[in-house]
Amino acid sequence: GYDEPIMTSPFRAATVANAFPETTVLMVHMGGASPCERNNADNVIGVAKLCPNMMLIGSAIGTEDVRRAILELGSDRVMFG
Fold it and tell me: Hey, which residues does 57 pair with through a beta bridge?
């Protein structure tokens, strides 16, 4: 999230997802829950496209970003919590 951007970067999550391909990686809040991170959804969706074991959780995120994630990744890769 916005308070720990280095620890929650989608690129860092991709490193973990690629290191453990049999493990499901949950990207909570699609990588951030702050209004200043709106553009981070593009990076998160792009990374998830490259990591089939990454699931996005669309809580505290704008509905358009969640909708776009569903359209680009499929409904089986996006959750709401």
Answer: 28, 79
Rounded to two decimals, what is the model's pTM? 0.84
The tokens describing 20, both together, are: 């453990």
**What ranges make up the beta strands (E) of 37-76?**
54-57
Q: How many CB atoms lie within 10 A of CB 39?
A: 9
How many other CB atoms are found less than 10 A from the CB of residue 17? 22
Give per-residue burial for 20-34: e unless 16+ CB within 10 Å, then b.
eeeeebebbbbbbee
pLDDT score at 70: 97
pLDDT digit string (tens) for 5-17?
666 688 888 999 9
